[in-house]
């Protein structure tokens, strides 16, 4: 899968609410209310990530979960990153 160019990235990013570009990745922080809510949210992401064989980097800090998406094997952002971001938003 080919990486997206800057124009394609900005176009797709505009369709997502709250996601930001950070170099070769997109990130979003979700407030889940408390630690248990954060862990449950990460658990909810697992099936979608496994189905796509595309795994985000996640960081939990009590009530907040930061999700970071990049296609490591391609060295940048691909369509899979934006597809998984949309699925994660649906779960939130």
Low-confidence stretches: none
Taking the alpha carbons of the first and last residues, their distance comes to: 27 Å
Percent helix? 40-55%
Number of helices: 3
Order of helices and strands: HEEHEEH
What does the largest sheet look like? 4 strands, antiparallel
Shape: globular
- Quaternary class: single chain
Per DSSP E runs of 2 or more residues, the count of β-strands stands at 4
Percentage of residues in strands: 15-25%
Label the structural class.
alpha+beta
Q: Kindly state the mean pLDDT as a whole number? A: 97
Strand order of the largest sheet: 1-2-4-3
| Backbone CA Rg | 13 Å
Report on the architecture of this protein.
The chain has helices at 6-14, 35-52, 79-91; strands at 20-22, 25-31, 57-61, 64-69. The chain has a four-stranded antiparallel sheet with strand order 1-2-4-3, with helices on one face. The chain has 92 residues and is α+β, with helices and mostly antiparallel strands. Helix content is 43%, strand content 23%. α2 packs across α3 (79-91). The mean pLDDT is 97.
